[in-house]
Amino acid sequence: MKRALNIQLFNSMGRKKEPLQLRVAGQVGIYVCGVTVYDYCHIGHARVMVVFDTIVRYLRACGLKVTYVRNFTDIDDKIIQRANALHIPFQQLTETFIEAFQVDMQALGVARADREPKATDHLAEMQQMIDNLIRKGLAYPGGGDIFYAVDRFQSYGQLSGKNLAELQSGSRVDVDTHKQNPLDFVLWKKAKPDEPHWPSPWGEGRPGWHIECSAMSCKYLGESFDIHGGGMDLLFPHHENEIAQTEGSSGQPWVRYWLHNGFVNVLTDSGEREKMSKSLGNFFTIRDLLAHYPGEVLRLFILNSHYRSPLDFSSELLDAARHGMDRLYSALAGAKKRLQELPVAAAAPLDDTDWGHWAEEMERFLVAMDDDFNTPQAIAVLFEMAKQINRLVATETASVQEISQGVQLLRQLAALLGLLTTDPDHYFHQLTSTGLGDADIDALIQQRLAARLARNFQEADRIRQQLLEAGIVLQDAKEGTTWRRS
C-alpha cells in the first residue's frame, strides 16, 4: 500500500497509544510468546496466534520488512509430568503437540513465524545470560538453583505498574528457604530424579521458564527490538521478569512496544462470564471447534472483538460469526454469477492510487487498522462493502467496473485479516461438510419451527436461506419438515 506509515498502537508500558516509530526505518522485529506443548491448543491460544498473525500481515502490507519470532516452550513442569504419566520421552510428547499446533494454525490461516525456536535448542544462550546476571550481582546460587534478585533491579514493576514494596508485603512466605526474597524467581533448576537435565556451570539441571524468551528473542532480534506480544495473563510476572533478566544482562533498553491481547471469557447459561481456563474445565480445543466451524469462521469470531478487549465465547456468538462469514461469501458468490452474465470484460485490477467508487471504504478500513489494529471497525467496513456489492448486483444498470472493483477490493482488504481466502463454492461446500452436521441441521429446523409458530416469518425465512446457502434443501409437509443435501 502506497501510504505514509501512520500506525498508533497501545503500549502496555505506560498504558497509552503511541505512534509506531521504528528503531530501523522500514524494519520491524516482533517476538510473541508461544505455546507450552504438552496438550492440544484451545481457543485462548487461537486468539493470541490469530491476533498477532493479523498484526504481522498488516505491518507487511504497509511495506515494512517484518522479522517475526514465536517460540515453543518444550520443557517445563507440565511437560515432564505429562510425559512421565504416559511413560514416554518428553521429546516425543512435545514433537507430537508441535505438529498438532501447526495443523491447527494452518486451519485458522495463521502463517508460520519467520523463526519458531524451541527452548531446548537454546540452552547455551540461556546459560550465557544467566552467567552475565551472576557476574553483575543480579543473580545468586541457592541450594543448587540459580535465582534472580528482583530487588537489585531498580526498574522492576515498570511494565505491570506493581510496586515492589507492596508485592513484598503481600507475598506469602516461600517454602524455598534458599531464596533471599520471596519474589525472587528461578533461572536454573537443580536436576531432580525422573526429570530431564543438562550440564551447566552450576551443575546438572534445566532452565526456568522466564529465561527462555529473553535468550531466544535476543538471539534472533538483537538486544533491542520493536514489539513484544502475548496474552494479558503473561504481563506479570512473565514479561516483567523477562525485562529484568534481559535489561539486567545487556544494560540497555530491550523492547519499545508491549502489546497484550485480552482474556477469553466463557458465557454461562445464566449469562455470567467465567475466565476460560483448564483448571475450571471450561476450555474448548481448536480441533473440537473445527469439527463444527470452518477455520475462517473462528478467525472472524476472534477478530470481531478488539484484541485488547475480553473475548466472550459462546455457541451463539460462534453461530453469529458463521452467519457473518456466510454473508460475505454470499456477496462474492452473487457478484461472481452476475459478472458471468454480463458480456463486458472484467475491470482492470486495482492499484494503490485508483480505488474508484470504493476509495472511501478503502480509507475507512486503513484508518481503523492504523488505530491500534481495530479489527472490529475494519470488519464493519467489509460488511458495508458486501452490502453495497449486493445492491449493485441487484441493479440492472450497475457497471461491471463497479462490481468487479468492489469484489477485488473486498478480497484485498479481507486478506489483510486472513479472511475470504477461498472461492465461495469451496467455502459453502466446506460449511456443509464440517460446519453443519446432522444435529446442527435438526437444531436449525427446530429453531425455524419455533419462529414460524411465533409468527416470526422473517426469522424463519432467514434460517431457510442459511440452510439453502449451506447446501441443505428443506421440504415442508403436513407430517413435518424433512431435509436433504443438494
Short recap of the structure:
The chain is built from 16 helices and 15 strands.
Protein described:
There is one protein chain. The protein has 3 domains: 8-265, Rossmann fold (3-Layer(aba) Sandwich); 315-425, Four Helix Bundle (Hemerythrin (Met), subunit A) (Up-down Bundle); 436-485, no CATH class. Helix content is 47%, strand content 16%. It has helices at 43-61, 77-86, 90-107, 123-135, 164-170, 209-221, 235-250, 286-290, 295-303, 315-341, 359-370, 375-394, 400-416, 424-435, 438-453, 457-469, and strands at residues 8-11, 16-19, 27-36, 65-73, 139-142, 145-148, 185-190, 205-207, 225-231, 255-261, 264-267, 273-275, 311-313, 472-477, 480-485. The strands form 5 sheets. Strands 4-3-9-10 form a 4-stranded parallel β-sheet, with helices on both faces. A 4-stranded antiparallel β-sheet has the order 5-6-7-8. Strand 3 (27-36), helix 1 (43-61) and strand 4 form a beta-alpha-beta unit. The mean pLDDT is 90.
